[in-house]
Amino acid sequence: MPHSTIEIHFSNPYLALYGHPSTSAGKALKGVVVVRFKRPAKVKSLILKLEGESDINWIYSTALLNSKCRFRDKLIDQTLTILEPSEEMHSMPAGESKFPFEFALDGNIMETIKTQVVRCDYSLTAVAERPHFQPRLSVKKPVLVKRFFQHNDDPIVAYDTIPNVLSIEFFAQKKVYGIGDDIPIQIRCLPLGGADRVCLRINSAIKEITTFKKPKSHKTNVEKKWHRVVFEKEFSDSTEREVVMPIQSNDIQFDCDNVFMETKHEIVLRIEAKHQGQTLTHFIKIPIIILSDTVDRIFEALPPYYTLEDLPGVPPPSYSQINIALVV
Description:
The chain has one helix and 22 strands. It is mainly β and about 325 residues long. It folds into two domains: about 5-150, Immunoglobulin-like (Sandwich); about 155-300, Sandwich (Immunoglobulin-like). Strands 15, 17, 18, 20, 21 and 22 form a six-stranded mixed β-sheet that branches. Strands 5, 6, 9, 10 and 11 form a five-stranded antiparallel β-sheet that branches. The protein starts with a strand and ends with a helix.
């Protein structure tokens, strides 16, 4: 074990922001810096540096030419001094010393994004300078920023038909899912009146549409991907089937909308119906929202709720007190 160490511990596994960047409230990045010495020591200063960078690299087409769109930007650069540099050294006891910290961040900062085209990431560095020729202590830790939007999570119900052949009903319990969740969808197919036996096949997938953007420019590039195709073998009509579509974190990008990119998703069902020797193909597209975490964990980082009695300070007057004051 080394004679001295320094560590960073965050209060939450990630910094959660809620709402669109233009209307989102700010948030505090909180944690503690832990410094350990085997024996009493001196420290010149203890400084934290929070940095964020973006790196965007994509190709757009103009006429017959393909041009590269490459730019970088500094997302954030903040410094927090915990122990001020001074002529007199700061005395540190043997053992463990903890220094809580807090960075006040605006609500419009970019969320963490790591794709082949867009990279937005953050890091926090803690440096403890020591006197003379003693090596300084330093540690760097990534900061994960996630953004969640308000959404309508009503069930999805859709109806469609293959004329004179089949009636199709689609049902999903909700519209919003998170990376790591499963999407169970129910499909009910009924032959229309007078139709003979119909053999069916279902091919389902998640379609991802990403529009890359260059700030202060009209240049864009649209990329479409298909994820996790689930294939169902033939089955008879007049039946209800459940298809489970897992959302894998290693090959799908969560929904987002910022100055660099916009990502949306939809479930696409390809239904093949064999009827009277003909094969009829029908597509159903259902928009969904995919968040950056499982739905069960999204609200773990929300601040605790306090009743009026629990809040510090003098509570506001009641309506009855206001009315009495107005009458007097």
